[in-house]
Structures are given as structure tokens and as C-alpha cells.
Amino acid sequence: MDPDPLFSPHLTTFTITGEEVDGLIIGPLASLVVTIGATVPVQPPSVFPVCNSTDCPIFTGTKYTTTDTFLLNATLPPSYEIVLTIGNLNSSSPQMLFLNNEILACAMATITSS
Questions:
Q1: CB under 8 Å to 39, separation ≥6 — which residues?
Q2: How far apart are alpha carbons 1 and 20 in whole angstroms?
Q3: Superkingdom of the source (predicted)?
Q4: Nearest Cα to 95, choosing from 20, 21, 25, 41?
Q5: Domain 10-112 CATH assignment equals 2.60.40.770
Q6: Sign of CA pseudo-dihedral 23, 28, 30, 31
């Protein structure tokens, strides 16, 4: 991520790399959802199509990279989580739920200021 550590307000970039290993296919409708917050997000989650910077579909054994930038424009608490999730968003869900509650890839980090 850039910047590291995060600060606000600032353009924030996440570069995600991985390899599909679980037999799930990441298709052209897959989205990356970036959520930053403690018990609740500090601002609405940022959503990006995975396939803007990656050829899709992504099959088992395929390495991929996607990079997305958004404006972090919220006060960060002393401790918070960064959650990155990839899945097919349910377009009728305002809560940004994934179709069939299926998460295709995820990562989480907890940040605690000292």
C-alpha cells in the first residue's frame, strides 16, 4: 500500500498480487472491496473491478496483480483494520454483499498506533 502507513486526506494505492489456488475462478465480474475502519468503516468501502488491470477469467494456478487508487478522506482511529476482499458483488445489495456469500480472495491487517 502507498502510503505506508496510511494518512488522511491522501490518495491511497493498494497493489494486490496473488495466485488462484483454490479451484475458484475469478471472473470478469469480480470486484475488489477495500474497507478501512475499526468496528465500522471510517468511510464507505471503495470498490474496483479486478479485471481492469488483469486479464480475466483467472484460473487455478494463475498469478495476477491488480492496482487501485482511492481518496482516503476520513479520520483514522488509533487502531483500525484494513480488509481487502475479492468476490462477485450482489448488485442489489447496498451492504456490498457477495453473490452466494462467496469470497474469492481476502486479506486483513490490524494497525495499532504505538
A1: none
A2: 21
A3: Eukaryota
A4: 41
A5: yes
A6: positive
pLDDT tens digits, 14-49: 998 888 777 777 888 888 999 999 888 999 999 888
Q: Which three cell numbers stand for residue 34?
A: 477495500
Residue 26 forms beta bridges with which residues?
A: 58
- Which of 81, 86, 56, 52 lies closest to 69, judged by CA? 52
59-114 pLDDT tens trace: 888 888 888 999 999 999 999 999 999 888 877 766 667 877 788 888 999 999 86
Q: Cell numbers at residue 45, please?
A: 468501502
DSSP assignment string, the chain: -BSSS--SSEEEEEEEEEE--SS--B-TTEEEEEEEESSSBSSPPEEEEGGGSS-S-B-TT-EEEEEEEEEE-SPPPSEEEEEEEEEEB-TT-TT-PBGGG--SEEEEEEEE--
